[in-house]
Amino acid sequence: MEDQAEELRELMGNTPSSTQKKDESSSHKTRIIAITSGKGGVGKTNMAVNMAIAYAQLGKKVILIDGDLGMANVNVLLNVVPQYNLMQVINRQKTMSEIILDTEVGIKFIAGANGFSKIANLSVEELDYFAKQFAQLGNADIIIIDTGAGIANNVLQFVAAADEVYVVTTPEPTAITDAYGMIKIITTELGERNINIKLLVNRVHSAEEGKKISDRIITIVGQFLNYKVDYIGFVYDDSVVSASVIRQKPFMVVNPTSKPAQCIKHIVGRIEKTDLGTSDGVSSFLKKFLRKK
């Protein structure tokens, strides 16, 4: 696995196309966000979709990747039917530009694939092709990855490679417990990488409830795991969310003035105020992705 990562570093550092990309946009950085959760049913995908739309409404170039490889449903919320996914790129059947879908909500969408982890076993030539294809995403301002729920291996790969990780939970005791469990696994398995973890509390009835839940988790994480987790914000429990799911129209589009939409805008605004540090965007993502078995 480490050999594959080293090969990819060489390929991405020395190919003419990658050199041109650096020269053309040396100051451009792609922010890569992974949105995850300890359990299903907490609204993780809804958060990913609507955050992507909120970024697009700010004038950002946004790509949303469905990384929930077992129960992919981003396309359901967007009401699109993807004909191709990342597996066709991995198998060199399609180019990246051929699988990216434009959507009516202003974002681009890439469907995931159950075999995505196969890139760890690609030959040098196959890695070269995939690296060049994936590097095309470097023109985006924001890439949001909706991971699967829980601690599957591919979830940890996405978490390890992203610039920032947002763990979604709700006020339910089981969701809080599972959020802590997810953070524990991340810090145990990937602690040496100093993953940038933030909490997003969904379906709250007040700002105070969101803060109380986040404080509880952050305190326990600090006490028992000796790890710093930040609170990024909350989203109100509101009937417009379930109604938008039924209509397959994100609430940022159909109810832009609703409480949940305002919450998402506030969260995105807070994210935008944080520095990306030394991240190299898409190139850095691929290198880190291959390091995690």
From TrEMBL:
Residues 1-10 have a biased composition (Basic and acidic residues). Residues 1-30 are annotated as: Disordered. The keyword Magnesium does not apply. This is Flagellar biosynthesis protein FlhG. InterPro entries: CobQ/CobB/MinD/ParA_Nub-bd_dom (IPR002586), FlhG (IPR033875), MinD_FleN (IPR025501), P-loop_NTPase (IPR027417), ParA/MinD_ATPase (IPR050625). GO terms for cellular component: cytoplasmic side of plasma membrane; cytosol. Pfam families: CbiA (PF01656). GO terms for biological process: negative regulation of cell division. The keyword ATP-binding applies. Residues 33-251 form the CobQ/CobB/MinD/ParA nucleotide binding domain. SUPFAM superfamilies: P-loop containing nucleoside triphosphate hydrolases. Keywords: ATP-binding, Cell projection, Cilium, Flagellum, Nucleotide-binding. One of its GO terms (molecular function) is ATP binding. It comes from the Bacteria. It comes from Treponema berlinense.
